[in-house]
């Protein structure tokens, strides 16, 4: 009897060992298959969707950087907006990865959802940004035009991301979670200094978040479409 | 704690200017730059300050703080690594680095803050230079002068481009070895780029630098790559050789210009004639061309009158002069009365006969075409004596005139009483010049004929010309009685120049003169407008007075060689101003008893205005 049990034990032990080593060896993210639906054009269309999403996110980040620079040059000089260290963005509450290791460890579905959340969080602020910039005296056209463009591109990126999620992660519809922006009152302050600082803050946050999204998407693209070999 | 942190930060910030370049007035240590090469680590560098030797090197410290989860909960921490990045630097490895998180660092010296800076890591990315530059020859141009190369490199090793964590773009610069200015190419995303049109006999230097795609700051340049292209083949085309077209053209033009000037200004007429032959100018023998340009009309006409074929020029100014010569052959007709009657004969056949529908063979058959004449007359009945109708009549008449001349010649001896030729001159205003030319041709023949005629015949009875007094609306021509003083005039010389002071009331500026006025001016029968000495007969019929002739006659001084006729010349000719309307031909009515015509009150010539009053 002992002879019968030992091979079984050995077998189960081996199996357990295999599982454990698999777990250890599996450094990369164990992920669900990319195209679970098995559609014919799934892989190809995913590549195109990601390419398009990366282009959009890159464009949005460029615009926000330019917009921030414009604002900085026009309004922030000499005002000592040294409060960069203090300002906080409304999207900070979303626990996004903060460096490469964290980003690599997170699952791509989670990351995709995070991206969606950030994008949704910016819908409202962008809308109000456009409105408030318009109402500024001598509304600077460089800033206004970019704000309008960013608002529109953000919506399109959101649509694209939802499509990607639909292909990668079909069926699972998460609650629309996003962080609420409450900076509108400060944008409408009568005091010019306070108002300008609120603008500065918002634009700085926008530049940062657009860079974040751009980076995440590039990372995801290389990982999903090119199998970590860009 | 939050408030305390806020106050501290504000105080620190107030004491120093974080990002703008403050001058190092007192030699304090300050940050020079903070840099992250791959978005995973970063390092900050500072200067030591002037008082380097005074202070102990270890007294300078760097503290940092980073905000996480919206709270400044942490204290200032000291730099984790003062060594890895070199002297006066602080290195933050990946565990200390968080992207998209604000950092603040401060530099302290002996406990006192000397400098402070705040930033986020993604803002300070400056990648390392690319490595592994190499080049390959793409192709050589056909001329063997230029070549294209492909330059390749590797991204900096610490940048994780493969996983897509950072995306880089590159800028290539190249120049010839002995040049100072680098040529820049546009940024590219790939790690290889072609460089075109390098010269084969030169050496080039190539360098590449990179930056994060969304940033503005470039990293350092890579090492310089030396590109030595293979030497040109000796059989290559000689470079830059062009046929010196420019020089040849310049010198050619110069030489030609010199030669031309020599020719033009040289004294050697023969060579000049050879190279630049003179252009023959129109010339008439015996006549000075200058006279033609500047001479007065009468002088010119005098000179040119020598030539037979110049008769018409006399009338060049009088473009309205037209001559119709009608052949009135029938001797019976003459006895009937005035020419008017003849012309106004009811039967057109009679007028036809008047126009010489004779059957005798005197050589007229060749030129006589009664049918055409008949049709012409028929046509003239249709219209109202328009000038256009008169013209074909005239043309036919002209053609007929030659025949008529012959007829005159034949019949002149026999027709004493009959007017051999009644040649009413119809002076039409505003006629084309060619017309007189044609007529002049005929006139010249007439003149020859007239000379013949004048001699034998008694001029009194012969009316070569009859003044057309009127043209009826029906189209018939009304002739005035023939001249009675022709005989007397015939002897007159052409040169008859009468100095007769014209009455003051003669209007000299009109083109036309009232014949009455003209009569006042000219005592003698005018020899107007014929300055040809060889045609005295031409004078006799011509009572037409023009301005020029009037002035001529008035201007010239001379004695009248002719006995002035006692009779006032009967106006044979009347000028007509307007020939436009169907009733256009309105002639001088002084020959006809039409006293009630008011427009003839003063002048036999009808002015345009007067005519307009009459005719609508």
From TrEMBL, chain A:
PROSITE patterns named among the record's database cross-references: SOMATOTROPIN_1 (PS00266), SOMATOTROPIN_2 (PS00338)
Amino acids binding Zn(2+): 58, 214
Gene Ontology biological process terms in this record: female pregnancy; lactation; negative regulation of endothelial cell proliferation; positive regulation of canonical NF-kappaB signal transduction; positive regulation of cell population proliferation; positive regulation of gene expression; positive regulation of lactation; positive regulation of miRNA transcription
InterPro entries given in the database record: 4_helix_cytokine-like_core (IPR009079), Somatotropin/Prolactin (IPR001400), Somatotropin_CS (IPR018116)
Pfam families in the record: Hormone_1
Chief place of localization: secreted
Cellular component GO terms held in the UniProt record: extracellular space
Record field: transmembrane: none
Signal peptide: 1-31
Molecular-function GO terms, alphabetical: hormone activity; metal ion binding; prolactin receptor binding
Subcellular location: Secreted
UniProt entry keywords in alphabetical sequence: Disulfide bond, Hormone, Lactation, Metal-binding, Secreted, Signal, Zinc
UniProt record similarity statement: Belongs to the somatotropin/prolactin family.
Protein name (record): Prolactin
Organism of derivation: Catagonus wagneri
Gene that encodes the chain: PRL
UniProtKB/TrEMBL annotation, chain B:
Localisation: Cell membrane; Secreted
Residue stretches spanning the membrane: 243-265
The entry's keywords: Cell membrane, Disulfide bond, Endocytosis, Glycoprotein, Membrane, Phosphoprotein, Receptor, Secreted, Signal, Transmembrane, Transmembrane helix
GO terms of molecular function: cytokine receptor activity
Membrane topology classification: Single-pass type I membrane protein
GO biological process: endocytosis
Residues spanning the signal sequence: 1-18
Domain Fibronectin type-III per the UniProt entry, residue ranges: 129-232
InterPro entries attached to this UniProt entry: FN3_dom, FN3_sf, GHBP, Growth/epo_recpt_lig-bind, Ig-like_fold, Long_hematopoietin_rcpt_CS
GO cellular component term, pick one: extracellular region
PROSITE patterns reported for this sequence: FN3, HEMATOPO_REC_L_F1
Subunit structure: On growth hormone (GH) binding, forms homodimers and binds JAK2 via a box 1-containing domain.
Function: The soluble form (GHBP) acts as a reservoir of growth hormone in plasma and may be a modulator/inhibitor of GH signaling.
Family the entry assigns: Belongs to the type I cytokine receptor family. Type 1 subfamily.
PANTHER family the record matches: CYTOKINE RECEPTOR, INTERLEUKIN 5 RECEPTOR SUBUNIT ALPHA
Protein name listed in UniProt: Growth hormone receptor
Organism the protein comes from: Catagonus wagneri (Chacoan peccary)
Record gene name: GHR
């Amino acid at each position: 009897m002992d002879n019968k049990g030992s091979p079984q034990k050995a077998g189960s032990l081996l199996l357990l060992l295999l599982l454990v080593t698999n777990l250890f060896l599996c450094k990369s993210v164990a992920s669900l298959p990319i195209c679970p639906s098995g559609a014919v054009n799934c892989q190809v269309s995913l590549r195109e969707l990601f390419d398009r999403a990366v282009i959009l996110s890159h464009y949005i980040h460029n615009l926000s950087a330019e917009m921030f620079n414009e604002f900085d040059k026009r309004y922030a000089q000499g005002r000592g907006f040294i409060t960069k260290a203090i300002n906080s963005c409304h999207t900070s509450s979303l626990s996004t990865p903060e460096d490469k290791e964290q980003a690599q460890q997170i699952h791509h579905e989670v990351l995709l959802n995070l991206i969606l959340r950030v994008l949704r969080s910016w819908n409202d602020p962008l809308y109000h940004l456009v409105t408030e910039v318009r109402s500024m005296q001598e509304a600077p056209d460089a800033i206004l035009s970019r704000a309008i463009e960013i608002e529109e591109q953000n919506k399109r990126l959101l649509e694209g991301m939802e499509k990607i999620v639909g292909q990668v992660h079909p069926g699972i519809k998460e609650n629309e979670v996003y962080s609420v922006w409450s900076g509108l009152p400060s944008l409408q302050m009568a005091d010019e200094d306070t108002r300008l600082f609120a603008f500065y803050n918002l634009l700085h946050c926008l530049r940062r978040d657009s860079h974040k999204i751009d980076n995440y998407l590039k990372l995801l693209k290389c990982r999903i479409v090119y199998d970590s070999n860009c | 704690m939050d408030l305390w942190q806020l106050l501290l930060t504000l105080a620190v910030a107030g004491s120093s200017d974080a990002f703008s370049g403050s001058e190092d007035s007192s030699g304090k240590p300050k940050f020079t730059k903070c840099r992250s090469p791959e978005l995973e680590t970063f390092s900050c560098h500072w200067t030591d300050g002037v008082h380097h030797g005074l202070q102990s090197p270890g007294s300078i410290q760097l503290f940092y703080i980073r905000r996480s989860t919206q709270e400044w909960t942490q204290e200032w921490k000291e730099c984790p690594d003062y060594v890895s990045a070199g002297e006066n630097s602080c290195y933050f490895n990946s565990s200390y680095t968080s992207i998209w998180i604000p950092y603040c660092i401060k530099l302290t010296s002996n406990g006192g803050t000397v400098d402070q800076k705040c930033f986020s890591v993604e803002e300070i990315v400056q990648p390392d230079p690319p490595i592994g530059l190499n080049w390959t020859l793409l192709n050589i141009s056909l001329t063997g002068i230029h070549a294209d190369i492909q330059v390749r490199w590797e991204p900096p090793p610490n940048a994780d481009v493969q996983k897509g964590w950072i995306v880089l773009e590159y800028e290539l610069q190249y120049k010839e070895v002995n040049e100072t200015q680098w040529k820049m190419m546009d940024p590219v995303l790939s790690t290889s780029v072609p460089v075109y049109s390098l010269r084969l006999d030169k050496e080039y230097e190539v360098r590449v630098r990179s930056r994060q795609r969304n940033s503005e700051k470039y990293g350092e340049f890579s090492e310089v790559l030396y590109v030595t292209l293979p030497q040109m083949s000796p059989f290559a085309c000689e470079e830059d050789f062009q046929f010196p077209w420019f020089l040849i053209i310049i010198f050619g033009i110069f030489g030609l210009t010199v030669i031309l000037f020599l020719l033009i200004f040289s004294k050697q007429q023969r060579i000049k004639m050879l190279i630049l032959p003179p252009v023959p100018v129109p010339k008439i023998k015996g006549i000075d061309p200058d006279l033609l340009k500047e001479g007065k009309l009468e002088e010119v006409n005098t000179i040119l009158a020598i030539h037979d074929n110049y008769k018409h020029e006399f009338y060049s100014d009088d473009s309205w002069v037209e001559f119709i010569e009608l052949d009135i052959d029938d001797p019976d007709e003459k006895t009937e009365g005035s020419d008017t009657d003849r012309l106004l004969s009811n039967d057109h056949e009679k007028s036809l006969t008047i126009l010489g529908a004779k059957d005798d063979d005197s050589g007229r058959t060749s030129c006589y075409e009664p049918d055409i004449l008949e049709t012409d007359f028929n046509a003239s009945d249709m219209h109202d004596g328009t000038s256009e109708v008169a013209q074909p009549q005239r043309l036919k008449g002209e053609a007929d005139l030659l025949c008529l001349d012959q007829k005159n010649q034949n019949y002149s001896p026999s027709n004493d009483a009959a007017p051999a030729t009644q040649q009413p001159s119809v002076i039409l205003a505003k006629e084309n010049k060619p017309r007189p030319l044609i007529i002049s041709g005929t006139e010249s023949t007439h003149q020859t004929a007239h000379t013949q005629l004048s001699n034998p015949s008694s001029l009194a009875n012969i009316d070569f010309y009859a003044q057309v007094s009127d043209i009826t609306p029906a189209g018939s021509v009304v002739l005035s009685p023939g001249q009675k003083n022709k005989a007397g005039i015939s002897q007159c010389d052409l040169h008859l120049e009468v100095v007769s002071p014209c009455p003051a009331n003669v209007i000299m500026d009109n083109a036309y003169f009232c014949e009455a006025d003209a009569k006042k001016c000219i005592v003698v029968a005018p020899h107007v407008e014929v300055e040809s000495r060889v045609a005295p007969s031409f004078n006799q019929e011509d009572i037409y007075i023009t301005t020029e002739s009037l002035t001529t006659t008035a201007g010239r001084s001379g004695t009248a060689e002719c006995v002035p006729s006692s009779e006032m010349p009967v106006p044979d000719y009347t000028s007509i101003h307007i020939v436009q309307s169907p009733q256009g031909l309105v002639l001088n009515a002084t020959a006809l008893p039409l006293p009630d015509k008011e427009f003839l009150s003063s002048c036999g010539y009808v002015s345009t205005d007067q005519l307009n009053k009459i005719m609508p």
